[in-house]
Amino acid sequence: MSKTTFLGKFFGHGEAVEAEVQHEEAFYRAGQWQLVWWKFKRHRLAQVSMAVLAVFYFVAIFAEFLSPHDPMRRFQGRLAHPPTAIHIRDTQGRFRAPFIYGTEQGRDPVTFRPIHVADPDSIHPIRLLVRGDPYRFWGLFPTDVHLFGTAGEDAMPIYILGTDSIGRDVLSRIFYGGRISLSIGLVGIAISFVLGLLLGGISGFFGGAIDDVIQRVIEVLTTLPQIPLWMALAAALPREWPQLRIYFATTLILSIFGWTGLARIVRGRLLSMREEDFVLAARLDGESEWTIIVRYMLPGFASYIIISLTGSLPGMILGETALSFLGIGLNPPTISWGVMLQQAQNIMNVAHFPWVLWPVPVVVIAVLMFNFVGDGLRDAADPYMS
Amino acid sequence: MLAYIIRRILRAFPQIILISILTFIIIQLPPGDLVTQQILNLQASGVEVSQQHAEMLMRQYGLDRPMHERYLLWIGNIVTRFDFGYSYAWQKPVAEVIMDRMGYTFAIALLSAILTWVVAIPVGIFVAVKQYSITDYFVTFMTFIGMAVPGFFLAMVIMYVALTRFGIRVGGLFSPEYMVQPWSWGKFLDLLSNLWLPVVLLGIGGTAGTIRTMRAMMLDELRKLYVTVARAKGLSETQILVRYPVRVAINPIISGLMWLLPWLFSGGLLVEIVLNLPTAGPALYSALLAQDMHMAGAYILIVGALTIVSAIFSDILLAVSDPRIRFGAVEGA
Lengths: 386, 333
Prior knowledge:
Chain A has helices spanning 6-10, 17-20, 24-29, 32-42, 44-61, 63-66, 170-206, 208-223, 226-236, 243-273, 277-284, 289-326, 337-341, 347-352, 359-381; strands spanning 87-89, 95-107, 114-137, 141-150. By secondary structure, chain A is an alpha+beta fold. Chain A has two domains: 76-165, no CATH class; 172-380, MetI-like fold (Orthogonal Bundle).
C-alpha cells in the first residue's frame, strides 16, 4: 500500500516497516522486540489507547489523592445530588475563577420529590490542593490533601459526577473502583498465564494420554457458556468470606476460560517447533530440555502469548462488571465499577438520577482501549511478516 | 460422508459426559445441601425435625451414598425421566421451571444468530471489497464499539431513554393485557413487538465480531491469484465474489456456529435479566441468589449439550461446503 491516508495511519495500515526505517541496516540489525515496537508505533489508534489506559491506571493508583472525597463518606442531606456544574461566569455576567454554586434542599413542585436547588448567591471557588476527608495514602501516610475541591468547613462539596442514592461521591467511587476493576483483569491474566503455560506446556511436551485429557477439557470449556458458569461458580462462594478472599476467588473464576486459548497456542507452537532445525541443533549441542524450551522455543512464541493474554483482558473486565452488577461477584463495601452499577438495577433509580450510570461509559472506554491495543499488538506481533 | 458424520457424532459422547461431570461438581459446590436447606425451612416454620426424619430425607435424596453413585443417580434421572432435580428457591422441580422459559431463550438466541448472519456476512464482504474507503473505516470503528459495549449496558441505556424521553417502560415479553391470556394472534403479535429489542441487543456484539472475521477472511482471499485468473477470464465482479472467495471466507463463520451459541446464551442471560424477560436467564439468576445450584446445573448442562449438538451440525455443514474436509485432507474444526 503506497497510498496512506490519515485514517489509514490511524488504523495502522500503511507502508511496511522498512519504509519507516530510513537506514535499512538498522532494520536488519534490530531485534525482534525492536521491530515489534516499531510496527506497534505505526498503529496510531493502539498508541492513543495505550496512553488512555496509562491515564486510567494512573488515576487508579493515585485514587486517594485525585478523588475529591472519601468514597465511603455519605453526605447527609445530599442524597442523589446532581453533578455540580462548574461555572466561570456569575449571575451578573462577570468572569471569575472556576466555581460552583451551593445548593439547598427543596421539593419538586409537581412530584414533591426532594431536589437540590442551586443558590446563585452562594459561590464556592474550586481550589487546588485543598484539605478534605482524611485518608492514608496507599495505606501508609496519613494526610488530608486532595488535588482539587472546595475549601472551608461549610463550603459546598464538589460533585463532578453527582452523588449516588445514599450520598456518596460518584467520581471518587469511579476512581477507587478502577483499582478493583482494572486490577482484576491483570491478576486474572496472571493466573491464566501460569495455567495456560503450564497445562499447554505439559500437553505439548508430554503428548499422549495427558495431552488428550487436557485437550478434551479445553474443548469442553469452550463449549460451555461463560457467563452462566461464572455466575454459578461465583454464587457458590460462601457469603461470609472476607472481601479480599472473594476478590481473589472471583479472579480465579474469571480465569477459568482465559487459559484455554493460551494453552492451545503454547501446545501448538511446542509441537511445531520441536521439528525445527534450530531446536535439533540445540539438542545436538547438548542443551538440556529445559534450556531448549525456555531459551530457544519460548522467544519464538512470546508475542503470541501477549496477544492471547491482552485478548482475554476485556472479557474479564466485563465479566467482573456483570457479576458484581448482579450482586453475585464483589459486593459492598468493596468498590468496583460493577458494584456501583448495582444502583442502576432499579430503572426508577436510573430515571431519577441517571448519573449512577457513569460507570457504563468508563467500562466501555476501558474495554474499547484494551481492544484497540490488542489489535495493534496482533498486527505488530509478527514483525517479519509484511 | 456417512462415515465422517458417524465418527463426528461418536466424538461428542465423551464431551457430553465431561460436561455432565463438571455440572455435577458445580451442583455440589456450595456448602450445605438440599436436605439441610429443607430441614432449616421446616424448622423455620416451626416443625421439629427429628434425627430420624433427617436421615429419611437424606436417604430419599440419596445423600447417604458415595459421590459416584449420586452422580449416576442424578444423570440417570435426567436421561430417563428428564428430571433435573428440585429447585428449593422456586419450590418446584427444575424441569418445570426451566422448560417453557428455555423456549423463549432459544427463540431469542436463534433469531439473534439469524440477524447476525443476515447483516454481518453482506456487510463484511462489502467492506472487504471497499477496503480503506470511508465506509470501511466507519464500519471498522463501529464494529470495535459494538464489541466493547455489552448488550446489557445497551439495554440499561435504552430502558432509561425510553422511560424518561417517551415514558415507556421497556422490558418483559408481553404487554400487561396479554400476560395471563391464552395464546392468540394478538398475543403473538404482542410478543413480536417486544421480542425484537432483546434480539437486536443480543445480536450487536456477534454481528460486530462476524463482520470483522468476514472482512479479514475476504481480504486474505481477494489477494489470491485465482481471483485474478477469474477476472482475466472475464467474469463479472459479482460472479467472481460469489463463486470463489465468499465460499472460502464463509468457512470460519460456519465453524463459528459452535462458539456463537454459548456466546449468545452468555450475553443473552444478562440482557434477559436487565429487561426482566420471562425466560430461563432471570429464573437462573433468582435461583443462584439463593445458592440453589440445581437450576444452574440444568441450565449449563442443557446449553452445553446443545452447543455440542450445534458443533456437530456446523462440522457437517463445513464438510458439505468444503470438500477438503469431506475427504479428510484437512482436519475439520
